[in-house]
Amino acid sequence: MLEGIVRDSITKAAVKALRKEGYLIANIYGKGLENISAAFKRNDFIKYLRNKNTLAFDVSVAGKTLKVVVQEYQKCPITSDLLHVDLMVAQAGVRTSYKVPVVATGSAKGLKNKGLLMLHTRRLPVKCTIENLPNNITIDVADLDTGDNVLLRDLTLPEGVDCYLDPRVPIVGVIKAK
């Protein structure tokens, strides 16, 4: 479980001081819950996220254990350091919007014909409860040739999971290399 602290002050000077000490600034929020301004050790947070195997994970802040999902994060444009993260509390039985990663498996036929595999959408926005939330959406690209795409309407999402994007949106495809 990831341990965090509650930020007493949300001023710019306090945020700078925490970042200098190696903390990552975080906001924890949820439907019907009071927002929590928190901070986590940056290196511990990154290690924990790399080793987790589900989208939802547990954090402990001020003696409370919360099951959260990363909704948004901000990186420094120059150094690519993680600066800020928004964590949403995953409440049981509440339909909420999540962003599920898309994973392409297999080797496309079009790669042999000098094509490039393009992942158009890296995270697919879905609406579901935490119980139905998939860890990722896996797409088999072995049958894709140059110029072929897998559209949103071609995907079969798990039961109870809805995506409100246009069904004509391409998810993954093979384009012709120039």
TrEMBL record:
GO BP annotations listed:
translation
**Pfam families linked to this entry:** Ribosomal_L25p, Ribosomal_TL5_C
Its keywords, alphabetically, are: Ribonucleoprotein, Ribosomal protein, RNA-binding, rRNA-binding
InterPro entries from the xrefs?
Rbsml_bL25/Gln-tRNA_synth_N, Ribosomal_bL25/Gln-tRNA_synth, Ribosomal_bL25_b-dom, Ribosomal_bL25_C, Ribosomal_bL25_long, Ribosomal_L25_dom, Ribosomal_uL5_bac-type
Which branch of life, at top level?
A: Bacteria
For the Large ribosomal subunit protein bL25 beta domain, which residue ranges apply? 98-177
For this protein, the record's Gene3D superfamilies field holds:
Ribosomal protein L25, beta domain, Ribosomal Protein L25, Chain P
**What residue stretches are annotated with the Large ribosomal subunit protein bL25 L25 domain?**
2-87
An example of a Gene Ontology cellular component annotation for this protein is: cytosolic large ribosomal subunit
Q: Name one GO molecular function term.
A: 5S rRNA binding
The record's similarity note reads: Belongs to the bacterial ribosomal protein bL25 family. CTC subfamily.
Query: Could you describe the subunit structure of this protein?
Result: Part of the 50S ribosomal subunit; part of the 5S rRNA/L5/L18/L25 subcomplex. Contacts the 5S rRNA. Binds to the 5S rRNA independently of L5 and L18.
According to its UniProt entry, the function of this protein is described as:
This is one of the proteins that binds to the 5S RNA in the ribosome where it forms part of the central protuberance.
Query: What name is this protein filed under?
Result: Large ribosomal subunit protein bL25
